[in-house]
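Standup notes, protein team

Yesterday: finished cleaning the Streptomyces violaceus set.
Today: HAD family phosphatase structure.
Blockers: none.

Input for HAD family phosphatase:
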Amino acid sequence: MTSTVPALGTRTAEGSALQAVLLDMDGTLVDTEGFWWDVEAEVFASLGHTLDESWRHVVVGGPMTRSAGFLIEATGADITLGELTVLLNDGFEDRIDRALPLMPGAGRLLAELYEYEIPTALVSASHRRIIDRVLASLGAHHFRLTVAGDEVPRTKPHPDPYLAAAAGLGADPARCAVIEDTATGVAAAEAAGCHVVAVPSVAPITPALRRTVVTSLEEVDLTFLHGLMTEMR
């Protein structure tokens, strides 16, 4: 395979270099944002409640404690946060065991990052038990590090997960490219000081300083990411 991708550590005249790529999971690499909503709707239906479709934009991309807590409050369901978390994780695991579709371009991008030995981390608000299931399909070898939502003091939209991933890879957050699909994830990455590529899955995301919006991962490759670090300095 031939490529014009700069070697890792190659610096531009301005002194910029891509040191690491940090990727969200649900809705970014795997087409599972709809799975979570379907499971939430099924669980609450079993409790005698119907979820309002407008709530989908509230819960997307957030940590389970926030999403589940919101739905309990909104519906008035007679269930504890701990009980609901177990039901949601169980239901989601059942869904991904049956099917786990990748987002367009995800497999190719992961293979390219791995081939060129770009330090790569998976950074998700999902719990460790879910991440490990998904890694079986994504290929754990593609990631030098994974960060789960239940392994950091504060998960997205706080910067903690991305700061932990950058530190674990020995990278400067300002030289990390983050790929996210939700406003919650984008907020976390930007608060950590990273460059962001947003690939909206459910709700629109607008371009901003240090934030580039694309329609699909098929638009993203190493040449794109190296160029992004130079253009957004």
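Follow-up from PR in the comments: The CA atoms of residues 167 and 173 lie 8 Å apart.
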